[in-house]
Amino acid sequence: PSVPRRTNRLINEKSPYLLQHAHNPVDWYPWGQEAFDKAKKENKLIFLSVGYSTCHWCHVMEEESFKNKEIGEIMNKNFVCIKVDREERPDVDKVYMTFVQATSGGGGWPMSVWLTPDLKPFVGGTYFPPEDGVHRVGFRTVLLRIAEQWKENKDALLENSQKILEALLHRSEIRVRGQESPPPAKEVMATCFQQLSNSYDKDYGGFSESPKFPTPVNLNFLFTYWALHRTTPEGARALQMALHTLKMMAHGGIHDHIGQGFHRYSTDQHWHVPHFEKMLYDQGQLAATYSRAFQISGDEFFADVAQDILLYVSRDLSDQAGGFYSAEDADSYPTTTSGEKREGAFCVWAAEEIRALLPDPVEGAAEGMTLGDVFMHHYGVKETGNVSPMKDPHQELKGKNVLIVRCSLELTAAQFGLELGRLGALLREGRRRLALARAQRPRPHLDTKMLAAWNGLMISGFAQAGMALAKQEYVSRAVQAATFLRRHLFDPTSGRLLRSCYRGKDNTVEQSAVPIQGFLEDYVFVIQALFDLYEASLEQGWLEWALQLQHMQDKLFWDPKGFAYFSSEAGDPSLLLRLKDDQDGAEPTANSVTVTNLLRAACYSGHAEWVEKAGQILAAFSERLQKIPITLPEMARATAVFHHTLKQVVICGDPQGEDTKEMLRCVHSIFSPNKALMLADGDCAGFLHRQLPFLASLERKDGKATAYLCSNFACSLPVTSPQELRGMLCP
Question: What range(s) does the Spermatogenesis-associated protein 20-like TRX domain occupy (predicted)?
Answer without folding.
Answer: 7-168
